[in-house]
Amino acid sequence: MLPVRLDRTDPRPLGTQLADQVRRLVLGGALARGDRMPATRRLAADLGVSRSVVEQAFDQLLAEGWLEARQGSGTWVAGGASGPPAATRRRRTPVVERPLVMLDAGTPWIDPKHRAVWRRAWREVSVATAPQGYDDPRGLPELRALLAERLGRTRGLAVDAEQVRLTGGTGAGLRHLLAVLPREAVAVEDPGYRAAVATVRESGREVRDLPALEPVTDLAGCSAAYVTPAHQHPLGRVMPAADRLGLLATARRDDAIVVEDDYDSEFRYDVAPVPALASLDRERVAYLGTASKAILPSLRLGWSVVPDRLLDAYDAHRALTHDAPPWPVQRALVTLLRDGYVEAVVRSARRVYAERAPRVVAALSPYAELAGPVAGMYSTWLLPHARAVRVRAAAEEAGFRVNLLRDYCRTARLSGLVVGFGGPSDDELDRALEVLVAALARL
Ligand SMILES: Cc1ncc(COP(=O)(O)O)c(C=O)c1O
């Protein structure tokens, strides 16, 4: 079997991926002049694709002169194909770097059927006139208005465009805030979001551990508390109403800001999402939203709603550092929001997650305990650490990446696995679950 691997999440057509990989095998010497290529029907069956995909790749390689067809006897690597000199070519099993299929907490599922709007967004960017100088560091006014409307409608957060700021994602939003907060410790949930911990530490501040499922009663000496109330990351819980009110009361008493990381609240499939914590107290809570779950992490775009009393310092810092997200990306998001792309993608991803979550739960629950309710695009499972490490190694061996719960913990002594289901295709998810179940059953 040819050592090639096609990735259905890769936006390039499968035929193009196959042609690229065969070219690389010839150039690397793994396929040598005169080697016979497998029959298209067999290769298609091995790769789980239609025969036309393989034929399209072979046609391309024939046209480029990498392969040649011999009447009645199949397809061969062509004489003129330029791999390394024959003397250095060894017949050995080539080592092929296979990218891992990500079953992590952060890779979302994106419905390809909405690509037309996506393309329209970038076409609009290509004909729009870019600002001549540094643009408004707060973000494009049109985009801020669209986001303000959406925050009101979907998160119960009544804000106007004047209060919304565009950022380069959640981490950038946190960095901007830290730039204007007193240089005191920041409390972060434990287990909690690792990037937030790293960002706080990089700012030279101490990170205090907030036990993730316990009420917050003490923020003395902290300038902020970083929390994920809509979907505790990674244990999954929705912060109960009493704990929300308690957290706000503690923050008021100890004069700390609550930083609300609202990363994936759109993706509840059992009940409607709870309104944002910031809707309870706009002056105590700084809200961080992101495009990374509902649209695409690689956009590197997010939005913040900052308490009014911090806004002047916040804006001055951003104007000084020119730290605003790129204009083309903001401009594209205007189209994506205006033309309903975001709503359509969120709706279809929610349907996919709602269908996949019970599959994951049914497969893994005989072997491990769920850490909390499953929502969004991942589930968290409690297991002894040594077992989790072995299961993760077995998954990696089979080409899948799952995360260790221990990696999210600082003083918390929890262990297990965080298993995402947004990244894989349906078939990949089935295979990954088989691998995980087999590894768990072996233990
Ligand atoms: C808890 C949490 N918050 C926020 C984000 C998104 O961060 P960013 O907007 O920087 O991509 C993630 C992504 O995985 C996350 O897990």
Question: How are the SSEs ordered, and which strands pair?
Answer:
Elements: H1 14-27, H2 40-47, H3 51-64, E1 67-70, E2 74-77, E3 101-102, H4 115-127, H5 141-155, E4 164-167, H6 170-180, E5 185-190, H7 194-202, E6 207-211, E7 222-227, H8 241-253, E8 257-261, E9 285-290, E10 302-305, H9 308-321, H10 327-338, H11 341-364, E11 369-370, E12 378-382, H12 385-397, E13 400-401, E14 403-404, E15 416-420, H13 426-442
Parallel strand pairs: 3-13, 5-6, 5-7, 7-8, 8-9
Antiparallel strand pairs: 1-2, 4-10, 9-10, 11-12, 12-15, 14-15
Helix pairs in contact: 1-3, 2-3, 4-10, 5-10, 6-7, 6-9, 11-13, 12-13
The protein binds pyridoxal-5'-phosphate (PLP).
Pyridoxal-5'-phosphate binds at residues 105-106, 169-171, 193, 228, 233, 261, 263, 290, 292, 297, 302.
Pfam families: Aminotran_1_2 (PF00155), GntR (PF00392)
Protein name: PLP-dependent aminotransferase family protein
Keywords: Aminotransferase, DNA-binding, Transcription, Transcription regulation, Transferase
Which features does this protein show?
443 residues, alpha/beta, Arc Repressor Mutant, subunit A, Aspartate Aminotransferase, domain 2, Aspartate Aminotransferase, domain 1, 3 domains, seven-stranded mixed sheet, four-stranded antiparallel sheet, 13 helices, 15 strands, 40% helix, 14% strand, globular, binds pyridoxal-5'-phosphate
